[in-house]
Amino acid sequence: MPALRAGPFPRTFALMSDPILHDYFRSSASYRVRIALNLKGLDYRAVPTSLLAGDQRSEAYLALNPQGFVPALEVDGLVLTQSFAIIDWLDRAYPEPRLIPEGAAPRAGALAMAMTIGCDIHPLNNLRVLKYLTVDLGLRDEIRDRWYRHWIIEGFTALEAMAAGSGPFLGGEAPNIADVFLVPQMANARRFDVPLDDFPTLVACDAAACALDAFAAAAPDRVKPAD
């Protein structure tokens, strides 16, 4: 049965029913959506979907999300997929606090930073790519890890320059979608021992975000299912 996960986040909007989030605790895309739900103050029921066990390829899950990816969010009769699309829907359905700025220039800046992670770093480093590198192409783990670190460093180098002058969050005085994308990617960087000394702005913004309950409660070590 799905487990109710409620955080210390005030509910601001009424829903017909609690959203159901199909996620994997270590999935960056799922992590983003957990953060967004927490920032919006929305309780949800979590359905763990193990990517290692192949739950995402089951007939039942493919009927829900034909891509076989996580996350998928069921809410008020809808099935939403793709983390960016889910966050955009949440912002339109439950607009406070806003995660995607309304002004043309701030919106473009926030989306550019989020997409540097979501389009340029993460797709090259997600689990299905890493499995292809090792299982199908036969690369050694140390070569796979070099691949992983290379793309994070390349993306973070650009993002650090884009974020110059930001603080305390990438979103300025309050976190926005760029911070929602940054925090999971920083967690991945630390898992793979990516050196972060060259990215002081990103490190500082990550620390500021992770000090907030909405971000901390979404972290993989806080939501990992019991063995």
Identify the notable features of this structure and list them briefly.
2 domains, 227 residues, alpha+beta, Glutathione S-transferase Yfyf (Class Pi), Chain A, domain 2, Glutaredoxin, 10 helices, single chain, 5-stranded mixed beta sheet
Number of helical elements: 10
Using DSSP, what is the number of strands?
Answer: 5
Q: What's the N-to-C terminus distance?
A: 15 Å
Secondary-structure element order, as H and E?
EEHEHEEHHHHHHHH
Mean pLDDT: 91
Proportion of strand residues: 5-15%
The third-level CATH topology of the largest domain is: Glutathione S-transferase Yfyf (Class Pi), Chain A, domain 2
Q: What's the arrangement of strands in the largest beta sheet?
A: 1-3-2-4-5
Low-confidence stretches: 1-6, 10-14
CATH architecture annotation of the largest domain = Up-down Bundle
Integer count of domains:
2
SS class: alpha+beta
Provide the CATH top-level class of the largest domain: Mainly Alpha
Radius of gyration from the CA trace? 17 Å
Shape: globular
Largest sheet: 5 strands, mixed
Task: Give the % helix.
Answer: 40-55%
